[in-house]
């Protein structure tokens, strides 16, 4: 048991140092970690190729299409300027709110289908325009947008991290994860907005020197709100309906209808239909559907490769007697949720990528579900959420998102550390406290 824990610890250390100090691609680091752990724990060498292929293939089979459909939707929303439409309409609808809260809400919705890195680049000009017209400190609006984009990115499918975690933990009800993750992400973006609002009141306004585009003057060239929101809403509605019909008994002569609806409302078909709705946004765009689909696949490829190799590592980790160690170490399963949180937080803070942190932590957490008393649908969701908030604790210099926020948001490095990094710390700590409280309440009052 001690040797297995030592081998796992060395593998995790290598994942951290391999991706940070030696700047190796996560695929190579995860592959080498898998081979090392398999050999160190006594896996027969002739079985190694089979294990590598099995773990990789099983993971791709589970979430491959989901990730591809999700990234294609995100690319089309970005190229068609639908994200600008969503941002401007939401801003107009929330004009009575203090500006930092409205900006965070924009980030909340836009970040669900679009990577937070890309979304920040897209919306940064809007942020600067709002700062100039309202005389609000740009630092405050930058923090509001960065934290508003970050929370849904790590908590709400169809972003790749939560999708991968759901597959790795064999979660069946993806719609339920969207609901739980969406609620928690909303609470966390409000926390980020509150911190940004505090900064807006405390910091002085400084005039920006760069020319600002007037996005409102371009509204006539943007796609409609209905077309822009459909690729996001339609898959969610379909998955919700799929959950609903699972509780309905159909007459024997209508079983075919039940099977058809169940198929159309499955996550793969729901996101596929959402992708078809996104094609409607290209009527006024010069981009061809085939070109944008190709771009979406290119964006998805690194995620698929990393996730698949993470599946191999996870399959090997499942052979380790980790449950015995956890069973001897923990007396309160509620506090056991700190384990996936801390693993994800250590990986995130050390190597920078939230997606890699989520994938790796979820594979390590899977064999522990039983001993933690979380081997059921809601329990798995608590684990995924704890991993998600761990993967946002914290964003700093080894995170590409940190540099995008600082450079596009007009922050110097010291200011980015002081406010953006601290904002993600607030969200991560608050997130795990809410999860621990929510799990305790569900165990003691709702069971």
Structural write-up:
The longest helix has 33 residues, at 413-445. The model is unreliable at 210-217 (pLDDT under 50). α2 packs parallel to α13 (289-317), α6 packs parallel to α18 (400-408) and α7 packs across α19 (413-445). The protein is built from 19 helices and no strands. The protein has helices at 2-20, 26-40, 48-79, 82-93, 99-110, 116-134, 138-155, 160-168, 174-202, 225-245, 255-264, 267-279, 289-317, 322-329, 338-351, 354-365, 377-390, 400-408, 413-445. The two termini are 34 Å apart. The protein has one domain (2-207, 216-445). It is mostly helical and 447 residues long.
State the main characteristics:
mainly alpha, globular, 447 residues, 0% strand
Note the run of SSEs as H and E.
Answer: HHHHHHHHHHHHHHHHHHH
Mean pLDDT: 85
| Amount of beta strand | under 5%
- Unreliable sequence segments: 210-217
* N-to-C CA distance: 34 Å
Give the SSE map.
Elements: H1 2-20, H2 26-40, H3 48-79, H4 82-93, H5 99-110, H6 116-134, H7 138-155, H8 160-168, H9 174-202, H10 225-245, H11 255-264, H12 267-279, H13 289-317, H14 322-329, H15 338-351, H16 354-365, H17 377-390, H18 400-408, H19 413-445
Helix pairs in contact: 1-2, 2-13, 3-8, 3-12, 3-13, 4-5, 4-10, 5-7, 5-9, 6-7, 6-18, 7-9, 7-19, 8-16, 8-17, 9-10, 9-17, 9-19, 10-12, 13-16, 15-16, 15-17, 16-17, 17-19, 18-19
């Amino acid at each position: 048991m001690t040797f297995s824990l030592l081998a796992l610890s060395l593998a995790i250390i290598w994942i951290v140092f391999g991706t940070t100090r030696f700047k190796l691609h996560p695929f190579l680091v995860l592959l080498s970690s898998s081979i090392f752990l398999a050999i160190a724990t006594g896996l027969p060498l002739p079985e190694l190729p089979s294990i590598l292929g099995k773990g990789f293939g099983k993971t791709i089979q589970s979430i491959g299409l989901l990730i591809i459909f999700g990234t294609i939707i995100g690319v089309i929303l970005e190229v068609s300027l639908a994200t600008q439409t969503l941002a401007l309409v939401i801003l107009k609808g929330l004009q009575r709110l203090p500006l930092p809260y409205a900006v965070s809400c924009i980030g909340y919705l836009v970040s669900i289908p679009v990577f937070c890195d890309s979304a920040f680049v897209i919306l940064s000009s809007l942020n600067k325009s709002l700062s100039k017209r309202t005389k609000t400190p740009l630092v405050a609006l930058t923090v509001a947008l960065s934290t508003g984009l970050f929370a849904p990115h790590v908590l709400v499918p169809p972003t790749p991290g939560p999708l991968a975690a759901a597959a790795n933990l064999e979660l069946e009800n993806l719609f339920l994860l969207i609901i739980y993750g969406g609620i928690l992400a909303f609470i966390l973006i409000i926390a980020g907005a509150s911190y940004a609002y505090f900064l807006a009141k405390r910091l002085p306004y400084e005039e920006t020197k760069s020319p600002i585009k007037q996005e409102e003057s371009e509204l006539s060239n943007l796609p409609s709100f209905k077309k822009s929101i459909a690729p996001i809403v339609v898959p969610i509605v379909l998955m919700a309906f799929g959950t609903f019909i699972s509780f309905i008994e159909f007459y024997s002569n209508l079983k075919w209808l039940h099977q058809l609806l169940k198929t159309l409302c499955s996550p793969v078909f729901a996101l596929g239909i959402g992708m078809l709705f996104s094609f409607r946004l290209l009527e006024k765009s010069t981009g061809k559907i085939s070109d944008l689909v190709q771009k979406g696949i290119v964006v998805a490829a690194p995620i698929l490769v990393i996730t698949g190799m993470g599946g191999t590592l996870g399959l090997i980790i499942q052979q380790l007697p980790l449950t015995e160690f956890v069973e001897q170490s923990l007396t309160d399963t509620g506090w056991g949720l700190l384990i996936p949180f801390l693993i994800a937080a250590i990986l995130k803070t050390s190597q920078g990528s939230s997606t890699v942190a989520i994938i790796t932590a979820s594979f390590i957490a899977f064999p522990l579900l039983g001993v933690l008393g979380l081997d059921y649908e809601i329990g798995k969701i608590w684990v995924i959420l704890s991993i998600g908030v761990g993967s946002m604790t914290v964003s700093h210099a080894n995170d590409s998102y940190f540099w995008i926020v600082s450079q596009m948001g007009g922050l110097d490095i010291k200011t980015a550390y002081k406010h953006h990094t601290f904002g993600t710390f607030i969200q991560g700590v608050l997130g795990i406290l809410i999860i621990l409280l929510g799990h305790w309440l569900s165990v003691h009052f709702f069971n």
